[in-house]
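User: Structure please.
Assistant: Input sequence and predicted structure:
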Amino acid sequence: MGITSAIVLFAVIWFMTFLCVIPVRLQTQGDLGEVIPGTHAGSPEVHNLRRKAWITTIISSVLWGIIASIIISGVISVRDIDGWMFNRMDSASEVRETDG
């Protein structure tokens, strides 16, 4: 895995984790009973985004380490995933690669 691939993998994991962490312990205007006229009752009042970003970074770093080590070690390859799910890669390409 190249450096660009590692950065892209981390960014994808980070944003997916962030979207899962954002709604945790979110207090809306409707929850607090102080709805500002012209806004929706579901608008966040207390969101703690900085804390959630740090939590997301910690969680995504751990996930990235696990996933990157699996990719680098070759425990699971693209061919394995194709064989389990799609079975689209032909065996002729395997023969050509090993004969070379």
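Strands lie at 27-28, 44-46.
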